[in-house]
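Could you please review the protein record set out just below?
***
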Amino acid sequence: MSDMTACLNDLSYITPNNEQNEPTQGDIYETSNKPTQAKRNRFEELYASANDELYQGCDSVTRFDFKAKFTHFKVKCKLTDSIFNEMLEFFQIDFPPGEDNKDKKFCPVCNTSRWKENNTTGKKVPKKVLRYFPIIPRLQRLYKSNTTKEMTWHATRKCTEPGKMQHPVDGRAWENFDTRYSDFTAEPRNVRLGLAVDGSNPFGNLKFFNVTLLIPGPKSLGKDINVYLTPLIDVLKDLWTVKGVETIDVATSQTFNMRAMHL
């Protein structure tokens, strides 16, 4: 068990081992001070993270340990050079090694040089730099906040008027998908994604738009766009599998395996 668990127990809304102990004089609270269910849900998630691995295969530090130590560094020295070096040492010990391709000079697929060709002896400049923002953690966060109900809006079909398409759920593509993949449709919390380029916004609502890829420009990508989409496609394949990814739904205090598809 993580050492942080003892600290959490001191603040816990959870009765250890489900024991119902008689309160002492100091434990008697007014009804208005009792935690709401939403606060309990957030605390239980924090409590669970005290013993979650920082990353798969890491047995030296938990997620909560890492956050606590990171915050300690920030407060202790206010991000001076000395604390920055200490942080780097901590990262080196507890994080997995870098990607296998980070030191390669040529693409392992097409054997093209990763650097711009020049005759200077200065720092080499990469031809392209793709910025990728993982989508899975952000989808999971949508079920850890007040947006949980909106994520299943399509299942209730609110405000649907005959003859009008107010939401993709009213379209033929959505209906056809429901017919073909009933196992996916059975879980209304599964996510259906669309892909937009250059800020395309057909429904006038940016609430659930997430920037996933910043592809270098300014010229049109043309036939090369499939190369830049590779990391996103790999994630979408994982989200399509029956297993999906374990996600916490704070509205019901349950975990479920979230899947996603591109409609």
